[in-house]
Amino acid sequence: MRYQNKAQLIQSLVTPEDVILDVGFSGQGVRYGDVAWPHALLKAHAKEVYGLDVQLNPAFVADPHYVQASAEDFSLPMRFDAIFAGDLIEHLSNPGLFLTSCKRHLKPGGRLILTTPNTFNLFNLAEKLAKPEPTVNRDHTCYFNSKTMRTLLAKNGMKPLEMSYLYALDVQFTESLKKRFLNGIYFLLSRVTDKFLETLVVVAVSHENI
Q: Which of 160, 152, 167 is nearest to 200 (CA)?
């Protein structure tokens, strides 16, 4: 299974009846108000959406749907049909604590939907050939692939319902000539296999809800 972009992912995994918590909603490489901003896509598709982030833009402070808190230790007076965390877990110091907080806030049968960079995506592998380490966001603390993600989930009482991939991040930046060349190879490889795609998608539930 693969998703072309986050819009398709949200349309496929979120229902109009869902009450959603979007953890780390303000980042994800897209400006507020952009049509590709995942939080806006969630609000357009779900019944009701709440947001949590370690820092809140002043525009959200007075809205009771938004909470300033750490993803690793949050406590809200309600539970959710789904928790969405787009490109968040790789920024955390303690991802297991994040999963524990999510478990506490999921309704029975509720699911965690997260995305994170695929360790072995084509761009990482190409850069590793050319220099000591691939370029990485300065705030990232770890890499994940499907094997390490399954282990992390199991150690924290969760089980994956789906492990899949996302083709495009929709991040806004100017691409170099080299990156555009790699994009062509990326496209061709994607016609054969998903394993070199840029982003890993995980849908997980608590063991208690299986």
A: 167
